[in-house]
Amino acid sequence: MPVDSFASSRAWMSQADVRCAGGGLFGFDISSMSGVLATSAYTNYFNVNGGYLQGAITGAMAGGSFFGTLASSFIADKMSRKTAIQISAIVWIIGSMVIAGMGAGIASAMVPVYQAEIAPKEIRGRVVSLQQFAITVGILVQYFIQYGSSFIDGGPKNPNQSTLAFRIPWGIQIFPATLLAVGMCFVPYSPRWLAGQDRWEEAIRVLANLHGNGDIGHPKVLAQYREIEEAMTFEREVGDSAFKALTQPRMMSRVILTVSIQMWSQLCGMNVMMYYIVYMMQAAGVHNLLLTASIQYILNVALTLPAILFIDTWGRRPSLLYGAFSMMVLLFVVAILEAIYGVPNPRTDPSLNHISWLIIDNPPVSRAIVACSYLFVCTFAVTWGPTSWTYASEIFPTGIRAKAVSLATASNWAWNCALAFAVPTLFQKINWRMYIVFGVFNLCAFAQVWLTVRETKGKTLEEMEEVFESGRPAWRGVSRGSRLDRLQRDIAEGTVKVRLSGRRYQEL
């Protein structure tokens, strides 16, 4: 890939640190329960053993994140994407579970928007996917902190275990938030947000630093500047408010699509594997719970890396289709194994009272279920994990991008909260049938992706109107190449000359 496809190393490295910290908040949230559920310190202190109370505790942070996400677009449009992310970190540092959740909600919505608006189109999927990589790293780090803390006072089975077993992993979450708040001081504002505020001189300077090694006259910088201004002019000529624009038929279909994709990313069953992997392993008859579960978190991180490297090669649509189908098959296999070889819980072990169906003394079946759970996580990590964040952040015009992405991310958190609350009860009430339910959700996701998801790789944010208004069915694909490449080539060859005059260009 040409050197000018990338930003200067200093700019991109500083933003990579921010991505890791911002996504880390979400990851710490997702994994905040999985490693403490099996400790006596947690179950004794909160007097909880599965069911509705456990669901309410797990769902508290996700509920806060839902409201934080809804508020994020107002902050981002008024004060900038950069400032919104900094505020999210401060809220996280201050908060209890619900308040900290609001911080995670703001960050989870605005970090992808910020990344999409500064990234070159050639690697936009890779850049936005770093959000998912940071999430997986946050999950892994938090889980192993919990795993280590679980051995306080002799281990998780000690009935008198200190509450430090869960207070340490929860309290340590302040560090990624601090890194995020400080790190954002050293990154630029989004050039598209600056343009939307009529701060064109700053916008062209940021574009030059990101895509032209500081050269304002670089053909790629001039071509992007022109595309952004033309898009802004069109949006202002239409004159609709952001909320009115969201309800227009051509935009409403995209809003429904991204809300659905974020919904399916939860209903596919992945967060069952993240929040309640201990319950799943207990039901499968696995004894070394925390260690067995830890392998899953390592796989989640490792398999996100191929997605980051190749999402801009194999595209968004194939990733979503392959992922939904594969996860459906794996969930059906788990359901079949548990239905055939499982039995009702005989209630001889009080520590398993929150589960109604068990695999007892059948190591081959237990290993098969664990293998399916590992393959499921690997599949999600390569496909839906990074792609769901990338797609939502890239298909809307600048004027409504923050609000549209906040709605999509709110869908993610709403279903996250609902599942966190409902899954403990599902383990008790419908046991192995729960996997069939999530498998059917994946089938529905496959159908919607096939019918409605259009490929966006290699296109600029300003070209999404052409992608979605082409009139071609989604499964027919889109035209190859990019308008930006042609314009950049014409500028480089002198066919089109662009001169910056004040805040405007003049085509000669």
Which features does this protein show?
globular; single chain; disordered N terminus; two-stranded antiparallel ribbon; two-stranded antiparallel sheet; 508 residues; 72% helix; mainly alpha
Write structural notes for this entry.
The chain is mostly helical and 508 residues long. Helices cover 72% and strands 2% of the residues. The strands form two sheets. A two-stranded antiparallel ribbon has the order 1-2. A two-stranded antiparallel ribbon has the order 3-4. It starts with 8 loop residues before the first helix and ends with a strand. Mean pLDDT is 86; it is low at 1-11 and 501-508.
Q: How do you describe this structure in short?
A:
Helix content is 72%, strand content 2%. The chain has 508 residues and is mainly alpha-helical.
The gyration radius over C-alpha positions equals: 24 Å
Total strand segments: 4
Sheet of most strands = 2 strands, antiparallel
Q: Can you tell me the overall shape?
A: globular
The poorly predicted ranges are: 1-11, 501-508
Mean of all residue-level pLDDT scores: 86
Share of residues in strands: under 5%
> How do the SSEs run, as a string of H and E?
HHHHHHHHHHHHHHHHHHEEHHHHHHEE
Q: Which secondary-structure class do the elements indicate?
A: mainly alpha
Query: Helix share of residues?
Result: over 70%
Strand order of the largest sheet: 1-2
Q: What distance lies between the first and last C-alpha atoms, to the nearest angstrom? A: 31 Å
